[in-house]
TrEMBL record:
Its EC number is 1.3.1.98. It is an enzyme of class 1 (oxidoreductase). One of its GO terms (biological process) is regulation of cell shape. The gene is murB. Its cofactor is FAD. It catalyses: UDP-N-acetyl-alpha-D-muramate + NADP(+) = UDP-N-acetyl-3-O-(1-carboxyvinyl)-alpha-D-glucosamine + NADPH + H(+). One of its GO terms (molecular function) is FAD binding. This is UDP-N-acetylenolpyruvoylglucosamine reductase. Gene3D superfamilies: 3.30.465.10, UDP-N-acetylenolpyruvoylglucosamine reductase, C-terminal domain, Uridine Diphospho-n-acetylenolpyruvylglucosamine Reductase, domain 2.
């Protein structure tokens, strides 16, 4: 690999960079805090045919045990601004910062996502959501870098569905996001946000080494009636069967491979007890997928992303 004409670090531990605390070494690691710097770096890498990967909050990924040979870009920060009910955020801004800023300005739309870790760009990639809302509810346009070109695409062209977007399928880098909110009552919004954060603290204790929910929930509309018959309808929430319910019923809680363990209190929560590996995560995930498929005829899909 060529020497790069901008600062970078070598052999950086990936396990320090994700909430799951898994992964070998990144050979070349570039931390960046601004969009102009990001675009400069991306253009250089593109012009020199140098492969790269990008991440931000590291809260939805499983890095590989063998490390990364490709250049790893870490988008760490950014700025945001609001005009009337339109908020523009750099993709590296924390989602929590966007939510707090919106609430402070009496803007409603993302308060149900309070407490979700990670960046705004990461939230767009996975169409992050909670309690019946998702980030796509407020997205108007997304500014992207795509093979040397920078342009805006509208919401329709992002193909958002439940925990999905075009960005999971096509390698495009999200630079900025324009979010359109509704007017709301600041105190009500703050109260909703606090309640949700308190609820989430019960499941996700401070410092828990995990990537959030491991598998996606299942949309009821995706299932044949014969499959749906096997599910207790009282468990369906916001039109979805929680993956955790299916996993619990096949005995997932407390299962363990190496130092990767399924929480004793939640079937869809993979926890790294310290020295867990991506290989063990994959083994455990495959076993659980098979068990759920055998019992319900439902194929679970990962919400997390393997690098
Ligand atoms: C405790 C905990 C609770 C969670 N709860 C929820 C929840 O309730 N709902 C929910 O939806 N998620 C939840 N998550 C998962 C995670 O927080 C979200 O998916 C989050 O939006 C990911 O953002 P990130 O910046 O951490 O993304 P990363 O993990 O850094 O990256 C995720 C993916 O996005 C890509 N990516 C990141 N930034 C960019 C960019 N600028 N351009 C292009 N691609 C990019 C990466 O390549 C990777 O494929 C939880 C995670 C944890 C640890």
């Amino acid at each position: 690999m060529n020497n790069l004409p901008f600062p970078y670090l070598q052999n950086v531990s990936l396990s320090q960079l994700s909430t799951f605390a898994i992964g070998g070494l990144a050979k070349k690691y570039i931390p960046l805090a601004t969009i102009p710097d990001l675009v400069k770096v991306l253009n250089y890498l593109w012009q020199n045919s140098l492969p790269f990967q990008i991440f931000s909050g590291g809260s939805n990924i499983v890095f590989p045990d063998q490390g990364l040979d490709e250049i790893l870009i870490h988008l760490k920060d950014g700025t945001l601004e609001v005009r009337d009910n339109l908020l523009t955020a750099d993709s590296g801004v924390k989602l929590s910062q966007v939510i707090n800023f919106a609430i402070k300005n009496g803007l409603s739309g993302l308060e149900n996502l309070s407490g979700i870790p990670g960046s705004t760009g990461g939230a767009v990639v996975g169409n992050a959501g909670a309690y019946g809302s998702s980030v796509s509810d407020v997205i108007q346009e997304v500014n992207i870098w795509d093979k040397g070109r920078v342009y805006w695409i509208n919401k329709k062209d992002c193909y958002f569905t439940y925990r999905e977007s075009i960005f999971k399928k096509k390698k495009r880098v999200i630079l900025k996001v324009k979010l359109r909110f509704k007017k709301g009552n600041k105190n009500n919004l703050l109260s909703i946000s606090r309640q949700i954060i308190n609820k989430r603290r019960v499941k996700y204790k401070e410092g828990l080494r995990c990537p959030g929910s491991f598998f996606k929930n299942i949309l009821v509309t995706d299932l044949f009636p014969s499959v749906l018959e096997k599910i207790d309808s009282s468990k369906i929430v916001f039109g979805k069967i929680p993956a955790g319910i299916l996993l619990e019923s096949v005995g997932a809680k407390g299962m363990k491979i190496g130092e990767i363990e399924i929480a004793s209190f939640h079937g869809n929560l993979f926890i790294n007890n310290g020295q867990g590996t991506a290989a063990d995560v994959k083994k455990l995930a495959e076993i659980l997928k098979k068990k759920v498929y055998q019992k319900f005829g439902i194929l679970l899909e990962e919400e997390i992303r393997y690098f």
